[in-house]
Amino acid sequence: MQVSQYTSGDVAQERIERVLIVDDDPSVRALLNIILMRDNHIIVGAAGSGAEAVRLVRTTAPSLMLLDLDMPRMEGLATLRKLRQHYPWLPVIVLSMLAPEVYALRCARLGARGFLSKGEGVALLSVIMGQVRRGLLLFPCQVAEGVMPFNNLADRELIALRCLVRGGDMDTVAAALSVSRDVVSVLRRRLLTKLGLSTDEELIGFGRRFKLS
To answer: Which terminal residue of the chain, N or C, has fewer Cβ atoms less than 10 Å from its own Cβ?
Structure first.
């Protein structure tokens, strides 16, 4: 996979995009709306969850999607997988506060065309959008290798770990993944085994070291 690293000196391609914004934070959606309209892009819709985003693709016909990862009712990784299955033609740029060294490579493998960190990434948004439309894959340098302890985790295992680090119990994890408590127990055991840990306390401490909370 050929991956380009974005820089602030790049020049955006002049093209008006039909953008679907997907983020559960209304203030982020409002900020992105202002930035995109300033650059003459068209906002065709906004969604607060992955499930809503997948439905809106069919009715709004976007030319590009901006996608958060940390959302309720189908989080970002599951949304990317669903989009790759049903709308593989749609370029998706991930815009997230989650650690790029943990998530960028995973997003690239699921078909995302770029990964931006909220804050610094917003200033480069039009640049990244223009280059993505030219066919480039644009990710921070961490995408090349990722963080080794996380590379062997399945997406569901990573989501379960994030829920546990945030103080979620078995029911919270089950609801986030739409699975039973028995499945969550299996995921927990797999996490402990794959990460070489023995207790839930060690598991949570490990996740916090990598800022999964």
So the answer is: N
CA distance 66 to 62: 10
Residue pair 132/91 in contact by the 8 Å Cβ criterion: yes
| Cα distances (Å, whole numbers) of residue 211 to 102, 165, 166 | 10, 9, 10
Residue with the bigger pLDDT between 204 and 4: it is 204
Q: What structural domains does the chain harbor?
A: 18-144 (3.40.50.2300), 148-209 (1.10.10.10)
Sheet holding 92-96, edge to edge: 42-47, 18-22, 64-67, 92-96, 114-117
Q: Tell me 18's DSSP state.
A: E
The answer to pTM > 0.90 is no
